[in-house]
Specification:
Structural class: alpha+beta
Radius of gyration: 15 Å
Number of helices: 2
Shape: globular
CATH topology: Alpha-Beta Plaits
Strand order of the largest sheet: 2-3-1-4
Number of domains: 1
Mean pLDDT: 94
Low-confidence stretches: none
CATH superfamily: ORF SCO4226, nickel-binding ferredoxin-like monomer
CATH architecture: 2-Layer Sandwich
Strand content: 25-35%
Distance between the termini: 14 Å
Length: about 100
């Protein structure tokens, strides 16, 4: 199943408190329960953006999650390969 990274422009995201983060995660999980095959793996929060990694059957499923939650999906990119430090060791080991 394809893996995607979603860029969400969310001014002030880095200032969200624990209760706000918990509420956002709960809201996202509720939406995911309505979207078979869509799985949220993790998110990275910066000052004004959130970058989320999802597994989904297609980009439209990601857009539907954004529609249900009201969270923006300013850019959606399918991840083709994951590279980590071990890729530089011996035989190629890109994931």
């Amino acid at each position: 199943m394809p893996k995607y990274i979603i860029e969400r422009e969310m001014p002030g995201a880095g200032s969200l408190g624990p209760e706000q983060i918990r509420g956002a995660a709960q809201h996202s999980n509720e939406a995911l329960s309505k979207l078979p095959g869509v799985q949220w793996l993790e998110s990275y929060v910066t000052d004004n953006k959130v970058f989320c990694v999802y597994i989904a059957p297609d980009e439209e499923s990601i857009r539907e999650h954004a529609r249900i939650t009201g969270f923006p999906a300013n850019a959606i990119r399918e991840i083709k390969t994951m590279i980590d430090p071990t890729a530089g060791e011996g035989a190629a080991s890109a994931h």
